[in-house]
């Protein structure tokens, strides 16, 4: 890594790093196609997902700039070398970086990413293999849950995540962090309403099953199809009754008298069971 690659920042108000300013407040308002990634693991995931952005067009993200704590630079040379030549790498001391971000828990590695124009749902489904596993999230408004669902989808080899129009953004800083970068690694697509999503999935040969405490079938007895979509509903109300009436429903057996599982936890259990039967989790 040539030293001239690093650009020193001495002033927290430097306009070149304005996107990183007061991240806690700005993140709540959303950033359009732009998002903040933090930490080495997440930057690694973003670099992997950005590979080829200037070449084949297969990348889904672009890294626009990076801001690094000065004592972290020496351990990040391999990642910095992977960045596009026109991507600025800013370096700052602890006091400056804390003042920029607004809090100290930033791991010393920050990147501004941009999500390239996403595919339509039809185009997204057309790219999937003949044997495919999808997670379909409906009405998930909690960033921790979205992050957990993406992490589980990555761990258990899902081919992608489909989000309905009411789901929160998986590229919010907290969702990316909770997913440990899986929100950048697992392909995803946002569709419209749940009914429309189900119809398009079925048209593309997917068997759609809904996870619910009221499910008619036991999860452990379920045999997945070659193209399988696992539908997850929001906390509390879960999937609407009209959706459950339209698809095969599965339940996770629980001890009597207890409430339903957190949706991210339930997604992990269901994905483990389905992915195992589809031969995606190894021996």
Produce a short descriptive summary.
The chain has 283 residues and is of the alpha/beta class. Helices cover 32% and strands 20% of the residues.
Describe the structure.
It is a single chain. The chain is α/β, with parallel strands linked by helices and 283 residues long. It folds into two domains: 3-115, Ribosomal protein L30/S12 (60s Ribosomal Protein L30, Chain: A), CATH 3.30.1330; 121-277, Alpha/beta knot. Helices cover 32% and strands 20% of the residues. It has eleven helices and twelve strands. It has helices spanning 23-29, 40-50, 77-82, 94-101, 121-126, 143-155, 173-178, 182-185, 194-203, 241-244, 263-277, and strands at 6-8, 34-38, 61-69, 89-92, 109-115, 132-137, 160-163, 188-190, 207-211, 217-218, 227-232, 248-251. It has a seven-stranded parallel beta sheet with strand order 8-7-6-11-9-12-10, sandwiched between helices. The protein has a five-stranded mixed beta sheet with strand order 1-4-3-5-2. α3 (77-82) links the parallel β3 (61-69) and β4 (89-92). The longest helix is centred in the C-terminal third of the chain and has 15 residues, at 263-277. It is elongated. The two termini are 41 Å apart. The model has no long low-confidence stretch (mean pLDDT 88).
